[in-house]
Amino acid sequence: MSVTAIAQEAVPPIGLAYVAAAVRAAGFAVNVIDAVGEALDTHSVWTVQPPYMLRGLPFSELVARIPAGTRVVGVSCMFSTAWLPVRALLGRIREAHPGAVIVLGGEHATACAERVLAECPAVDACVLGEGEQTFVGLLRAIDEGAPMATVAAVLSRGGPPAPGTLPRIDDLDAIARPAWDLFPLERYVEGNYHYGVVRGRSMPVLASRGCPFSCTFCSSPRMWTTQWSARDPGDLLDEMRAYIARYQVNDFTFFDLTAIVKRDWILDFARRLIDSGLKITWQLPSGTRSEAIDREVAELMFRSGCRNMNYAPESGSPAVLKRIKKRVKLDRMCASIEAATEVGIDVKVNVILGFPGETLAEVRETIAFVRRLARIGVEAVSIFPFSPYPGSELFEELVRAGRLKVDDGYWAGLVFTDLGQMTSYDEHFSTRRLKALIFAAYGAFYGTQLAANPRQLLGSAAQLVTGQGSSKLANALGPLRVRRAAWQRLRSADPTAQG
Fold it and tell me: With CB atoms counted within 10 Å of each terminal CB, which end of the chain scores lower, N or C?
């Protein structure tokens, strides 16, 4: 089951669908409750300070849907921004099912397993890392009466410490495909709920897992190790054909952390997709590397249907990039971005400001960099404040230095997409000043874009007004309007609600 906080958009829970498929393939009975997908238009206020706006089934209804006599309840918490409401939900589940084994999985459980068990007595065990094989192994241990602590990559109460290195699944093609038949998938597809721009009926897929890099602000090394694994392009194409036939989709959103690492892989996939004759589009909204993408690769990607792609340089300052271990050559990335835009791919770029130790001179370098991006044709940027994410190297450094106290206030303030809730962890800037610098960076990008590519910005603005089109800017701002409208409805019903 899954629950969504205000910081997260509603997307098909592909990780949970993979785990459900593995459980079913192993011969266990499985019942899925997709709390978000079952009630995409239902919003409620969960009264903590600051309050959360939750989307999906109310806790009481969600808990009531768990069948009596359920032996194991698995709950997914992918993002730590949702931990406070998920923790409350876990307590409600324990009250209703005192004899069940309650297991938490996902990136939050992996990064914070010890804290989860300490903060939430309702949880019996945490599944760390990839869940398919580990959760099935845990179910078998429970079924056989064996201690949960005997299962690798499981941290249970009274068991040994969490393993330092997690096992990885070697053959991604051997995993059962997501059990979408157990989820209200059509509601997501029909309603254009997915992580990317709107290009019709879109389906989530994974072509790879993991990332071979060790950026200090990212929790991926803890969750996935630094192993990058890719599926066979032919198997991926077969899955896409199956979804086209079953769900009549015309677009695919790749949920990969780092989809394009090996040049040979992306060339093989693109050529197979072109040869297949499928008239579809696909997109990479999560951010990808630039090393493998030159003009030849970009042209093949476009011909195969790629229309939107995110790059994630994170900073325009070489000194900052070195400190955060972001192995990026900015000139090489700009050349890759320029090649992509010239062939017709819409490009968005992610940037972070306020890394610990970042100076004003380094911020100015990043602002100059986003201006450069606007001039070479980047369609949109997302400029986030640095947020110390659990499981990351910088998070641990801040905790050890006493600059970060992990309490409910920290979890509530981890909403990194909401500048109203942000906190500066850069000793050179107050929160107010960092927020001003973020707005200045946005102004620099879109001001330069208006001067260099006015049609691009005006086209995005028109799509925002009409609510139609595939502009990344329009698709990013659209959900903000939905959330604002939901808050207004909730406050009309309950004047004490805050937003």
Answer: C
Q: In whole angstroms, what is the distance from residue 396 CA to residue 276 CA?
A: 47
Distance CA 181, CA 163 (A): 34
Helix/strand/coil for 72: strand
pLDDT of amino acid 475: 53
Contacts of 125 (CB under 8 A, 6+ apart): 101, 102, 103, 104, 138, 148, 154, 155, 156, 157, 159
Backbone angles phi, psi at 406, to 5 degrees: -85, 95
Number of Cα atoms under 13 Å in the Cβ half of residue 301: 30
Look at residue 176 and tell me whether its pLDDT is greater than 70. yes
Domain boundaries of the chain, sorted by first residue: 14-156, 203-452
Tokens of 484: 């604002």
- Which is it for strands 101-105 and 43-46: parallel, antiparallel or unpaired? unpaired
Please state whether 149 falls in left (phi above 0), alpha (psi between -120 and 50) or beta: alpha
What are the tens digits of pLDDT across the range 290-344? 889 999 999 999 999 999 999 999 999 999 999 999 999 999 999 999 999 999 9
Q: What 3-state class would DSSP assign to 254?
A: strand
Q: Can you say whether residue 438 is alpha, beta or left, with left for phi > 0 and alpha for psi between -120 and 50 degrees? A: alpha
Label residue 473 by pLDDT band (50, 70, 90).
Answer: low
Architecture of domain 14-156: 3-Layer(aba) Sandwich (3.40)
Find all residues with CB under 8 Å of 109, minimum gap 6, and list them. Answer: 77, 116, 126, 127, 128
Question: Kind and range of the H or E element at 410?
Answer: helix 408-412
Q: CA-CA distance, 119 to 412, in Å (whole number)?
A: 15
- Report whether CATH 3.40.50.410 matches the domain 203-452: no
Please, which pLDDT band fits residue 490 given cuts at 50, 70 and 90?
Answer: low
User: Which tops the pLDDT comparison, 321 or 4?
Assistant: 321
Asked whether the bond before 50 is cis by omega within 30 degrees of 0, the reply is yes
Residue 458's pLDDT is what?
73
Please state whether the predicted TM-score (pTM) of the whole model is above 0.85.
Answer: yes
What confidence tens digit (pLDDT) does each residue in 13-61 have? Answer: 999 999 999 999 999 999 999 999 999 988 887 766 667 778 899 999 9
